[in-house]
Amino acid sequence: MDDKEIVAIILLRRRLIRQRLKRRYWIHPLNLLRPTMGEHLKLEMMYTSHPDKFFEYTRMTPVQFDKVLDMVTLDITLQDTNYRLSIPPRQRLFIGLRYLVTGDSIKTISTSFSVGRSTVLNIIKCVNQALWKNLQPIYLKVPDKEKWMEIVKGYDEKWNFPNCLGAIDEKHVMIRAPPNSGSLFFNYKSFFSVVLLATCDADYRFTTVDIGGYGRQSDGGIFSSSALGRALDEDRLQLPNSLPLPGINILQPCTFVGDDAFALSDKMMKPYDQRGLDKKKRIFNYRLSRARRIIENVFGIMVSRFNIYRRSIIGDPENVINTIKATVVLHNFLRTDELLMRPETRTYCPPGYFDNDDDKNGEWRKQGGGSGLTDFRRNTRNNYTQNARIMRDNLCNYFMGAGSVEWQEERAFFNVPAV
After folding, report:
1. Residue at which a domain ends, from 139, 166, 188
2. Among 224, 264, 306, 340, which is least packed, fewest CB within 10 Å?
């Protein structure tokens, strides 16, 4: 074979490749019908005439939708080109919310909105980034000392737990295995995940989040290596100084409250080991559990409202993290907005939606279906400092004295068999 034949074969192959790659349509004929048919038209009808259906679809009222749209419009608007008109920001936000709220596949959303699949992917990415960029500085701002004091006051007044900076918990968020990731995201429960570590205030709102820890990390290692854990160790969170326990003169550092997945320390309060509990330790565990379950409710509410968590989230790690960020700030926005409403007019967390007391579970628990948020394995380590032990004992004694409440014994021993 001479050089001319080799060149001819190469040119022929290139031409065949170009023919295969050539797009059949710049815009598919079905998608040209978008102005007259498509799910966004149904949504506009819901927006104007059926606000209850609009809430089911977007998890927000029309007024709340307009607020969010105003904040993100600049970041999700594209310019028209000579070839086609861009999708308006209103429709782009509809598509982004559809993905988060329903967890539908890209193919399903593409068909419903008469939009190409690659366009849907780009819209979802753009909307998620815009939500975090514009809502986070307002609704998930890192607390300063004044805000920490508000949180402490809220836990004392609403949940009878003094000197509490918030409840903390970690969850595995189930994801589809990222390409070429090996076992990096494969956790001990035998599925792929990233880690969502979060704290919350007394009103069921996130206060700090740390997203993206590898699923394979050990339970104890995730918190210590997280941005929150490092900030606590390095005293970079502007936490308030030690405060006297209400009604007595004993100074007590302010701490977060967590479960057995966390190690007891001078910034983290956890329950006593369940073996050999006496009366006052059982009451302490109940009082701590009552405060700690706020974060459990926050996660539960978010999962019940954003069905993207009902299955493995598909995408590269960056897009998965952006998806989680978007749901976190939307949760805070909706929860903050409805706190200004009368309880009977709230839709995102109406009365009875979260746990009201130990013997009455919230409505979110009845939603059914699987969940892509999974608890961590409990931490069996009991090593802690002498100072941390004294702090916990001080609170334990306080709950039996000046800080006792009349109903604590009955509820602490609810369903405990008599000896």
Report:
1. 139
2. 340
CA 387 from chain centre, in angstroms, equals: 33
Domain limits for position 240: 146-412
Pairing of strands 373-374, 206-214: unpaired
Domain count of the fold of the chain: 2
- Give Dmax over CA atoms of the chain in angstroms: 99
Each residue's pLDDT tens digit, 1-15: 566 676 666 666 776
pLDDT at residue 383 greater than cutoff 70: no
Same domain flag for 212 and 342: yes
Residue 302 inside a domain? The answer is yes
End of a domain among 139, 167, 184? Answer: 139
Q: Which two tokens stand for residue 124?
A: 């979802």
Residue 244 β-bridge partners: 251
Residues 6+ apart with CB under 8 A from 246: 156, 162, 402, 403
pTM for the complete prediction?
0.87
Confidence class for position 419, pLDDT limits 50, 70, 90: very low
CA pair distance 154, 141, nearest whole angstrom: 18
242, two tokens: 């030690």
